[in-house]
Specification:
The complex is a heterodimer. Chain A has one domain. Helix content of chain A is about 35%, strand content about 20%. Chain A is built from 7 helices and 7 strands. A 7-stranded mixed sheet of chain A has the order 1-7-6-2-5-3-4, with helices on both faces. Classes of the chains: A alpha/beta, B mainly beta. Chains A and B meet through α3, β4, α4 and α6 of A and α1, α2, β6, β7 and β11 of B.
Chain lengths: ~210, ~200
């Protein structure tokens, strides 16, 4: 993971030029053992900033088509990303996520499955909640606010703005090996996770770039 | 593109009115020019030069709801053309295994050459008329997924490769909502039930 650490260092040095970064709740990230880092998704910058902030290597699920892009196809697996085919149930992506967790590693997923058009939290992909229930590991909600102001989905350039990344205390859900158990807890797990992710979005960011 | 977000002009309400004009995005009906302001705000400058700057979310709240076929040619028209847009289409040409060392991480689709043409949505399906006269049709009944991806919309027709649509003048977000609306109506009309999920695949009950 030399390349991961190198990229992490570059982003840490470069991030003050693109945003005024504030990080809260870093103490909630487990220092050892598996956990699922579940985040909202406002901007293309989110995975870059989150992976730069987290002290441990976070194995992140990313859309499969990115892995076919020139350069990215080589880089992505080397910075601990693995592909998910989003237009179908992708058992291999689930398998890799569970394999990483069973090896005691953190796995990052974006609950909404895609960037938000308006910066607000969107409805979650139920497949992500099913993965949470299947894994049965601590879930650390990570809310990123302000990256939408830096680089929204509808614009091609960056503007410097304040960004706040908040890690909440880990949520714990029972491990559900059976499909019926997972479906029974789906609504409750969705509501709990969304409520925690939503909270930091209601606090205003400091003004100015 | 601002037009991806604001698929109608929030000032005059013209649907699919905002078009790119060089580096500017302007409503073809009322002449209001839109550009990004500070952060995620959008500045509108009307034909008289009056400027209003609002957060993108506030502009979005001023958009009319997406309609499909209500009193228009698509409703009850037996599959007549309802909505058309100029697009660039790519078809998945295959999948590549993604590996790290010896471990298989998954698969990634790679797309073939882009082709331009007109995409038409009717009450029963989508059709792509390429500039070179080739026609591809996808009945709504055969679509298994509708998936936005960056500024494109991806379709998965049953038994066919993934299709990626880039809207050259229109809004990907608008077309996603339009297609979802068309699918919901189609499913209801065909007795296939209510669509519960569009991703990763269409699930109805």
């Amino acid at each position: 993971m030399i390349l991961y650490r190198l990229c992490q260092g570059i982003v840490r040095v470069a991030s003050p030029f693109i945003c005024r970064l504030e990080v809260r709740g870093l103490e909630h990230l487990p220092r050892a053992g598996p956990f699922l880092l579940v985040s909202n998704h406002q901007s293309i910058l989110d995975p870059i900033l989150i992976q730069a902030i987290c002290p441990r290597v976070v194995h992140t699920m990313a859309k499969s088509t990115q892995f076919a892009a020139p350069g990215f196809g080589w880089l992505m697996p080397r910075i601990a990303s693995f592909p998910v085919r989003r237009y179908q149930v992708d058992p291999q992506a689930v398998r890799i996520a569970l394999r990483r967790l069973r090896a005691g590693k953190p796995v990052g997923i974006y609950l909404e499955g895609e960037r938000s058009w308006d910066g607000r939290l969107q409805a979650p992909r139920l497949g992500a909640i099913r993965l949470i229930l299947k894994a049965g590991v601590p879930v650390v909600p990570c809310t990123i606010a302000g990256s939408y102001d830096v680089w929204p989905r509808w614009h091609r350039s960056l503007r410097r703005a304040p960004v706040r990344v908040t890690f909440a205390a880990p949520l714990r859900f029972p491990r559900c090996d059976e499909r019926g158990q997972r479906e029974a807890l789906l609504a409750q797990a969705t509501a709990r996770t969304l409520a925690v992710l939503q909270q930091p979005l209601q606090t205003a960011l400091p003004a100015g770039p | 593109m601002i037009r991806d977000l604001l698929w109608a002009c929030p000032q005059c309400g013209t649907e699919r009115g905002i078009r790119q004009n060089g580096r500017r995005e302007t409503c073809t009906a009322c002449g209001t020019e839109y550009r990004r302001g500070r952060g995620s705000t959008i500045e509108a400058r009307d034909a008289r030069g009056l400027r209003i700057t609002l957060p993108a979310t506030t502009w979005m709240q001023r958009l009319p709801p997406v309609r499909f076929g209500e009193g228009e040619s698509g409703e009850g028209g037996g599959g007549e053309s309802a909505y058309s847009e100029r697009v660039q289409v790519r078809f998945a040409a295959g999948v590549t295994a993604v590996r790290r060392a010896t471990e298989l991480l998954g698969w990634a689709e790679h797309f073939g050459e882009a082709r331009t043409g007109i995409l038409t949505l009717t009450r029963d399906g989508l059709a792509f008329h390429a500039d070179d006269d080739e026609v591809r049709e996808w009945p709504l009944a055969l679509l298994t997924a509708v998936q936005p991806s960056s500024s494109t919309l991806q379709l998965k027709p049953r038994g066919e490769p993934l299709v990626s649509l880039r809207f050259l003048e229109g809004s990907a977000r608008y077309w996603e909502e339009l297609l979802q609306l068309a699918l919901r109506r189609f499913y209801r009309r065909s007795g296939l039930g209510e669509i519960l999920e569009f991703q990763p695949r269409i699930v109805a009950r």
